[in-house]
Amino acid sequence: MTSAPPEPSRTTGQRIAYGAAEPQFVDFYLPTEAERPVAVAVLIHGGYWRDRFDLSLMDLLVADALGRGMAVANVEYRRMGNGGGWPTTGRDVEEAMTLVREHWREWNGVVPFISVGHSVGGQLALLNSAAADAVVALAPVTDVSRTDDERLGEDAAVAFMGARAAELPSEYAAASPVRQLPLGRPVLVVHGDVDSRVPVDHSRGFVGMARAAGDVVEYREVPGLDHVTAIDPSASHWPAAAAWMAGQTTR
Which segment of the chain is annotated as a signal peptide (predicted)? Predict the structure, then answer.
């Protein structure tokens, strides 16, 4: 690894690459007043792995986390259309998490690193749970085989994986958090009961299996919450999610 990059500004982000491809970068932010943040929020956006969706989806959560005294690492990664697909996308997020830990290595073991992923960002956060101290999964994709079976996201899984689940069973298993249990980290799963992009039953099944495997999982099913509103910090579900994150800082 190269020498440590300069610390990010406390008013604007610092963009740091973890690879040579254009989408391989992390935007780092520090809260404006705290000498040391209460936590590091590592944000991983969704978009069914397609390149027309990027890390700007998480802008409202960046601002919210900073306002709560957290440092923020907003992760970008290669997606379908700009070099991504499985397993490239998963490796990108793994390398991004390594960069986050290295960049703020003086805080390792001092403040919690909490990954927050939405939709397929939830998938990627759960798959990389070992690199975080806790995980928040917002309307996550937890079973890529089921995503393929149900043709969700305009049949996104087959394009992401390169073939149907029946043709690549081991690859689909490796890409599915539900097949990687136990995760060994505290997890909060939040899902709305009217979500049409990732049906809520996916999270119900995942939570049951994770708990059966011994994981500590808190599950909040939110009436009337749709897929996109899951990343809106002004929505009714967010104060409780933020409180759970704050609770990880005292563990």
Answer: none
Residue 112, classed as helix, strand or coil, is coil
Q: What is the CATH number of domain 14-248?
A: 3.40.50.1820
Provide the token pair at 228.
């996109």
Is 182's pLDDT higher than 90? Answer: yes
Q: What confidence tier does 251 reach under pLDDT thresholds 50, 70, 90?
A: low
CA proximity to 41, closest of 14, 71, 80: 71
The helix (run of H) or strand (run of E) holding residue 201 is helix 200-212
Confidence check: pLDDT of 21 > 60: yes
Strand locations in the chain (E) = 14-17, 25-29, 40-44, 71-75, 113-118, 134-138, 187-192, 217-222
What are the residue ranges spanned by the domains of the chain?
14-248
Predicted confidence (pLDDT) per residue in 52-63, tens digit: 999 999 999 999
Chain centroid to CA 44: how far?
Answer: 4
Q: Are 223 and 235 in contact (CB under 8 A)?
A: no
Residue 104 burial by Cβ neighbours in a 10 Å radius (0-12, 13-18, 19+): buried
One-letter amino acid identity for 204? R
Name the CA dihedral angle for 175, 179, 183, 187, rounded to a multiple of 10 degrees.
80
Closest CA relative to residue 34, chosen from 4, 74, 66: 66
